[in-house]
Amino acid sequence: MNSSIKLLLVLLISLEVSFTHSLSANLLLIVCGLIYLIVHKISIKALLFLAVVPLLPALGLFVTIYFYSPGQDLHFALVLFTRMYVYVTVGAGFTMTSNPLALALSLEQNWHLPSKFAYGSLAAFNMLPKIKTAIFTIRTAGLMRGIVLSWWSPQLYFKAILVALNWSENLAQAMISHGFVEDQPRTFYHQIKITMSDYSWLIGILLVIQLPIWLLP
Fold this sequence. Notes:
Blueprint: H1 3-18, H2 23-39, H3 44-52, H4 55-68, H5 74-95, H6 100-110, H7 115-144, H8 154-177, H9 196-215
């Protein structure tokens, strides 16, 4: 499926789930999301990470609704608990199986996202490993001077931001030197098109999930 269509599908599912109270639909979406991730050979470690990370906020919602709300509605508490995992599994199904380059190009070509945002987001994504390395280097340099910069130290991230600003200037100059001109028409070596199959998958999946959302409790 086209990456931008997949993003649209995830947003529509998340939006609809936010306004419905079907526990069965939430459980079905979670199971389908897990099956989709397993089919795409996502590691067990990643799946466990997805299960553990949202557990605390999900439990917080459950405890708040079930123990401290006037009605103490168990069904609604379970709906909110599972809704958190719907967001996680559906979102992971998109982020872990989509190519950032294909997504940016599709948004630019098919949804008319400005080129500066498309290439800027790609640049930021590709710089994440370098930023991680820069933070490690800054911490090491601080230790050599007897300064301990913890992970929650504002000074550490202020220095990292200064490094990133320097990179952004170099990146802008590199794009200009390669012929990038803002707000000018561009041609594409690799064209990404949205096919009828993509639209069929989008409409078909949305229609299928309406049944459990509106018919099941």
